[in-house]
Amino acid sequence: MIQNNPIGRLIAHFVLILGIVVVAFPIYYTFVASTQTLQEIIRPPLSLLPGGHFWENYSSALFGGVGRIGGVGVDRLLWNTVVMALGIAIGKIIISLLSAYAIVFFRFPGRMFFFWLIFITLMLPVEVRILPTYKVMVDLGLIDTYTGLTLPLMASATATLLFRQFFMTIPGELVEAARVDGAGPWRFFKDILLPLSKTNIAALFVILFIYGWTQYLWPLLMTNRNDMSTIVVGLRKMISFADADTEWHLVMVTCILAILPPILVVVLMQRWFVRGLVETEK
Amino acid sequence: MASSNNVTFPNKLLPYLLLAPQLAITLIFFYWPASQAIYQSVLREDPFGLSTQFVGLGNFRRVISDPNYLNSLQVTIVFSVATTLIAMTIALLLAVMADKVIRGKNIYRTLLIWPYAVAPAIAGMLWLFLFNPSMGTLAYLARSAGYNWDPLLNGNQAMVLVVSAAAWKQISYNFLFFVAGLQSIPKSLIEAAAIDGAGENKRFWTIVFPLLAPTTFFLLVVNTVYAFFDTFGIIHAVTGGGPGKATETLVYKVYNDGFVNLILGDSAAQSVILMIIVIALTAIQFRYVERKVHYG
Predict the structure, then answer these.
(1) Does A280 touch chain B (CB under 8 A)?
(2) Which residues of B touch A252 (CB under 8 A)?
(3) Which of A13, A187, A193, B132 has its CA 20 to 30 A from that of A216?
(4) Closest partner residue to A16 among B30, B33, B94, by Cβ?
(5) Which residues of chain A are under the pLDDT cut of 70?
(6) Does A198 touch chain B (CB under 8 A)?
């Protein structure tokens, strides 16, 4: 057996631990900073152990945060981000399920044309059409609304392709049996297709939740009012190195609060996450 | 990709209703703005929007001959190549090591994948906290060691900072795919080579690495797309394209020209050039997927 090499394995463990330290260090450092006082943060070097101001800093960021970013507390920013992440994830899944269902289980004129129309949106990410998209949103009055933050990101070629791929593996006999038993398209969708798609939906949900949570350019363009901003964009507005009265300890707290929910989703739903990542990139 | 499923429902109207939401969003928020970008890219408009004039490919000619644009193209290439290489090398090293260990495999994986959940903009900020000259501890240590570190003034150092943040965030993604790729390599091949007396290094470079080629190529494309398009947040949050224009990538320039400087025609022409780049990258990616299907 070639695997039986204790020194090699020891080196492997060592390299992995080193890798984890490098990967985790920026997050750990920020966590440590979030438990210190402002004075300790602005006078480097920072201690590598958490300070004693955890409760103080976190409660003042979450509850005492009046006049933080133009008068908006972190709770509001977190709420906006939750709405955006959930809205995009759920909306995308519903819309993609419906269109994949139409494309796989029905024959109608223009079927392939519509399929390609959806497919080509893969090649039009918002980054390449920033200004005209902004103009459309202004014309429709969607700036500073939850609709504006979520609806335009709900169309997804990836999710539609994934569900289409999966639906095509469902044996025709199943559809036939359902039809013989008198099930219409809605019954079939609800009682057979949805239960079969559960794993795919869960996997996709994790990926899309993170996708929605980490959006930056879109909320930056779509929101002018501070109380409609997401936590990622809001955080950017809090940071000013030139400004002497930036409250760094609260910035650090906000930073931890901004990365904690998606990290929890990845760690707790790891199985779905890995599956979703591999499936969506096929 | 032949559909094996020939059993369908006979409804005439229903499929259109099912497709309607997706198509409505796609047409209003994707095709309409994209066609506007193409339309505006052949027009010249004054900043107040009072008069427009058809200029054909004039905007493209101006953009391509603009030294600032060429600089930004060069910045993007340096940034993408560095980010991709660093993120993939570290991920491959960690994946090979994770393939060797038996105990604690899952714990290592869990602890290595979480940066995936960090937004690029926040990844940038985390690195900025460590390395900004006024309060970053690592910046402080670098200065104490006599190294003149100031990414806010030195363009190369700013580039090092944004590349580190971008690569850091991407390691977890590459790691997962390399681990999956390594698992799919038949152990019997490696054992056969070991029996033939090939050392560990030789086994890696002559068997494992070539068999990983599909994964590597796939990741190369995905990482390039990531570095080109998904790192806007890092640039915007960390350097704002500066100092000077040392970290102004193509996407950042489109945003800056259109949104801050209000040069609409040039911004639209740059958008169209970016669209062509995305189409090329997507085409490469899908050609590769087809090949993967053929070879099983």
Answers:
(1) no
(2) 129
(3) B132
(4) B94
(5) 1-4, 44, 64-71, 240-245, 280-282
(6) no
Query: Would you call A117 and B26 a contact, using CB atoms and an 8 Å cutoff?
Result: yes
Write the burial class of residue B103 (CB in 10 Å: 0-12 exposed, 13-18 middle, 19+ buried). Answer: exposed
Type of residue found at B277? I
Instruction: Kindly calculate the radius of gyration of chain B based on its CA atoms and give it in whole angstroms.
Output: 24
Asked whether the beta carbons of residue A23 and residue B254 sit closer than 8 angstroms, the reply is no
Indicate yes or no: CB of A8 within 8 angstroms of CB of B28. Answer: no
* A163 in contact with chain B, both atoms CB, cutoff 8 A: no
Q: Are residues B33 and A8, on separate chains, in Cβ contact within 8 Å?
A: no
The token duo for B256 is 């800056």
The 10s digit of each residue's pLDDT in A211-222 is: 999 989 889 888
User: What is the predicted ipTM?
Assistant: 0.84
Inter-chain touch A266–B117, beta carbons under 8 Å: yes
CB atoms within 10 A of CB B77: 15
Neighbours of B235 (CB within 10 A): 28
Interchain contact A136–B (C-beta under 8 A): yes
Q: Which domains does chain B have, with CATH numbers?
A: 66-294 (1.10.3720.10)
User: Residue ranges of the domains in chain A?
Assistant: 74-236+266-280
Work out the minimum CA distance from A191 to partner chain B, whole angstroms: 16
> What are the φ and ψ backbone dihedral angles of B30, each rounded to 5 degrees?
-115, -60
Torsion of CA A155, A156, A159, A161, to 10 degrees: 110
The full length of chain B comes to 296
Q: Do A130 and B118 touch (CB under 8 A)?
A: no
pLDDT one-digit tens code per residue, B19-74: 999 999 999 888 888 888 888 888 777 666 677 777 777 788 888 888 888 888 89
A108: left (phi over 0), alpha (psi -120 to 50) or beta: beta
Could you tell me which chain A residue has the CA closest to the CA of B10? Answer: A106
Q: Which alpha helices (H) appear in chain B, and where do they start and end?
A: 14-26, 32-40, 58-65, 67-100, 105-113, 120-131, 137-144, 155-183, 187-195, 200-203, 209-211, 213-225, 232-238, 250-255, 264-294
Span B183-197, mean pLDDT?
Answer: 84
Residue B86, pLDDT above cutoff 90 = yes
Contacts 24+ apart (CB under 8 A), A226-229: A226/A69, A226/A70, A226/A71, A226/A72, A227/A71, A227/A72, A227/A76, A227/A80, A228/A80, A228/A144, A228/A145, A228/A149, A229/A69, A229/A72, A229/A77, A229/A80
Please check whether residue A237 is in contact with residue A77, taking contact to mean a CB–CB distance below 8 angstroms: no
**CATH topology assigned to domain A74-236+266-280:** MetI-like fold (1.10.3720)
Q: Does A130 touch chain B (CB under 8 A)?
A: yes
**What residue has token string 């990622």?**
A232
